[in-house]
User: Fold this.
Amino acid sequence: QFGNHSIAGPSLKQTSGTALIVELLKCIENSAFVAERNCSDVVSMLFWLLDRTLEFPGCKSEKYEEIMSCLGGIGRKQWAAVCSELLKVMAKFRKSKSLSITTECAAVASRWGCTQTVYEIMLKLLTRNQTAVQRSALDVIKVFGIEGVNLYFDNLARVIDPVSFRDELSCFVVNSSKGVVASEHRSTMLPVLIHILFSRLSDRRAGGGASLHSKRSAVLTFLGGLSSDELEPLVELMLEPFAHCLKNRLDVSIQTFAHPSFALEEMKTVPGGRKMGYLNCLASVWKQLGASVAPWNVQLVKPLLCLL
Assistant:
């Protein structure tokens, strides 16, 4: 029982696993102070969703293990529903220190391509083409109390919304000469914005038609107002599918891809869809951003040469 809500029944497995977990998380959300007292368990559950091979650290309750076993075969939509509800619980935390990663979860964070902070995980989730997950991740980012992000929270939320996306891009100008975003806030706000916009660049649900082309053009035109240095997060996101091609390296920074240990043979393990996605994105970026990404051309060409 959580607050005024309760879940009861002869067996949890008689209920749909996904529906049960979603309802359970809604109950916890209404008693967020309880969840914050057990914040390590909440963060552990997040990593369990990101990598279901992780054994739940410190899971001593048989009933709790039974609840989690219901999630064994969830699909994309069900995963999004559970993840979104879990993030809503985390967004109710009052202290950013509650959003910490336990030692047991550190290895999973590395395997998932993130630095070992929940903030980086939230940035990662902003790149997913799932509006509910993106919005909930942005709510969690707000808990960290970063002024350069929170001042533009409503703008960022409207960029996530498919309905207001285009209108917001047309008025949410970030060009430094026009000063809509204060210069002291750009270094913290722009990476968040770029992660959101990257989800539009990598969206393949439009089937490659006019809608997808128009969407990419709108994003790239907007990004054309940024400096080369400010576009570094975009380049890192583009290179991310090839991170595991580096021997004994888990990070995906720009500097990593300049390393001579880039492995040609391991490129074969990258799924074909990811390769095509990179080629399409690269062509659009070079065409519309041109000189703005010129400082990163050496890194951008390396995967291209390995694909020849």
About this structure: Residues 91 and 140 are 4 Å apart (CA to CA). Confidence is low (pLDDT under 50) at residues 1-15, 53-64, 247-252. The chain has 16 helices and no strands. Residues 272-289 form the longest helix (18 residues).
